[in-house]
Amino acid sequence: MPGVFSDLDLSPNPLELARQRRLAAGGYLDLTSSNPTLQGLLFPPAILRAAAESFWDARRYQPDPRGSESARAAVLAYYGGRTPPLSLTLADVFLTASTSEAYTLLFALLADPGDNLLAPSVTYPLFEYLAALRGLELRPYPLREEAGWAIDERALHAAADARTRGVLIVSPHNPTGAVVSSPLAALSRLGLPVICDEVFAAFTYAVPAVPPLGALHPDLPVFTLNGISKLFALPDLKLGWIALNAPARSFGPRLELLNDTFLGANSLSQHLLPSLFARGMPFVAQMTARVRANLDLALERLDSHPRLRLHPPDGGYYLFPRVTGWEDEETLVLHLLERGLLTHPGYFYGDVPGVHLMLSALTEPATFAAGLDRLVESL
Ligand SMILES: Cc1ncc(COP(=O)(O)O)c(C=O)c1O
User: Fold this and answer.
1) Residue range 9-22, pLDDT digits in tens
2) Does any domain span residue 187?
3) Domain extent at residue 349
4) Number of domains making up the chain
5) Fewer CB atoms inside 10 A, N or C side of the chain?
């Protein structure tokens, strides 16, 4: 059959079937959630209500293909305050419906069908679907687990060929938590445009700050992606952005045309953005404190377990421990599910040697603590 995804088997996999059975048979402790709104982390409604109040009477549809100026000014100010700052002009910021939409625009901006992009070999699973929409190949580059999941720069460099059009970096990385804290020689040698996803930048753990890659690499065109989905726990309000460092500016006019093709950024969410930055930071601090407390607990409880090898993440809200004594991730995850614990197998995130689990430290703390106990007992 023609059409994208027509070769995929869309029936539920064995893990999903087992999850449904377990749910019907009394439920489980869920350690996989990435959804703050279901984990008791709700952005203060009073701030949203007050900020929305001035929207309704003044609303006129006069879209700017880069997004409203007041919202872009708020993004610009945010990057001015980062460590180190990323210096932007208003024209360097593009507002989109989400980072997922931003990826779609950038894949079309940088590559033609049949070209390829380099992507980490364990990573956020959406990339392969987004690449398929544009007929692109994703060429995996490995991460070095023994070095805290740092990028294997030699392998990254070797993965490029004549049809490579860009490099994808996720920092803090999902699910390993690794942060790129200094410039990467392999990126400079490749000289390709870089798309850096920093949606977890506010969630620092082992590092004091997440440097914007566009500031670390003033030698390369860097497109920085972020949005309100993770930063302000507002995935439902649909707003993301792309920030271009100075070498990426030459792509601006074509990116403007691509963004104008969809005009996906919601006007209400754009109107809210300055207030989210102005009044939302205490809530962000509360969320990061929750995640840090959960990560502290997990490291304390799991690190001494003879079957678990755990690297403290630099940032983000996931843990990706290695489990020894098990041959197969699916058997392990089914074993845990039978004991009432939902985790993700490492293979959901790509191909990596060894057996791994993904645990989300965004989870509501009492459930998280009970889940850790169950994990320890079940192993
Ligand atoms: C690394 C990463 N990037 C982007 C997203 C999605 O962000 P958005 O809701 O802005 O599309 C996620 C969601 O889990 C993610 O893990």
Assistant:
1) 999 999 999 999 99
2) yes
3) 14-42+282-378
4) 2
5) N
